[in-house]
């Protein structure tokens, strides 16, 4: 079921996972594949023929590093349960590609939001997954990647990944850079995430990018990041008990994912807040919760007033955002801000999670000419924008 309005509350229950998946036979170049919603089946015969042809062609290639046209091999380092339905899969680059991969991963972490595709070789399908940030003490260039994966009932890729053991081989394509959050934030200071399930992964990427001085520069430039995190079951609310009881020092028995959230909280304090919502406990994210998050964020005032966004600004116009897709930001990294001179930028609300979740909170994305565009802001955030009479005009809504 999609996540409809339940009174003024929204359920996180959805039938499909996050959008933009591609079911892609190996030889199809990235530029020719559509990022698809939901499952898609290819003729196995056609796929086998094409795959054979591709391998014959590709066997001459020596570059085995991560790239966005061809799948490359990584080795599974660990597969650790986080809850009955979620696990953290850790993989590592092959030594032969380590130097090149390290440089590519460094660039991806510097960009901020990014994902890769995994391939299921028997079925020739591919799905996007979002790398969790490096742990404390790592700089992200060790060639290791970690993913929080939810095992979907009947889900082809997530169940395939859940069966991976140490030493197994997986195939990756990417990295795919998403929205350029620092550019879009500009001189604004607040980021709110409305995240469903594994949709917390991009939020943690933002914590890594925006709150780590070593990644982002000056201390006084750090924004606040508040995450409204919805899960179906209380067992998936990682770190909630620890935050409530202020426990969290016994790292020995904690999952790597729990440890990561606790470390982030310890390092970033009130600049990193998670509010938990659980279907099981009938605690859904409602319009009032989002309004409260936006209000409390706006209350931590900056000493400057933001200029109103120019309608033709590449980074800050709502209209131009509605007609673009997340990967576009990486194509024009040097485009100038066209807002009036002075302090310019927009606070940011990101909605990340399954399709139905995004639709309920921010409205559907829109397919046009093979591109999945952001579309207008609708759903709960559309209602808030309509009712607020300008009070949330400095917030830009991104659908991840
Ligand atoms: C940018 C991006 C990043 C993502 N990051 C992550 C991440 O970090 N972690 C994560 O876990 N997920 C992530 N996802 C979602 C992920 O890509 C997959 O969609 C998810 O793992 C489910 O894939 P699957 O192959 O297991 O399920 P699928 O086989 O695609 O099935 C999905 C659901 O649909 C149902 N279904 C299957 N076939 C049908 C059918 N014919 N008709 C109706 N329903 C059907 C299944 O039972 C299942 O519940 C991300 C998605 C995107 C777009």
UniProtKB/TrEMBL annotation:
Keywords: FAD, Flavoprotein, Membrane, Oxidoreductase, Transmembrane, Transmembrane helix. The keyword Cell inner membrane does not apply. Residues 69-182 form the FAD-binding FR-type domain. Gene3D superfamilies: Nucleotide-binding domain of ferredoxin-NADP reductase (FNR) module, Translation factors. InterPro entries: CBR-like (IPR001834), Cbr1-like_FAD-bd_dom (IPR008333), FAD-bd_FR_type (IPR017927), FNR_nucleotide-bd (IPR039261), OxRdtase_FAD/NAD-bd (IPR001433), Riboflavin_synthase-like_b-brl (IPR017938). It is found in: Membrane. Residues 11-24 have a biased composition (Low complexity). It holds the Pfam family FAD_binding_6. Its main location: membrane. The chain crosses the membrane at residues 40-57. Its cofactor is FAD. Residues 1-36 are annotated as: Disordered. Signal peptide: none annotated. It comes from the Eukaryota. Belongs to the flavoprotein pyridine nucleotide cytochrome reductase family. This is FAD-binding FR-type domain-containing protein. It comes from Apiospora marii.
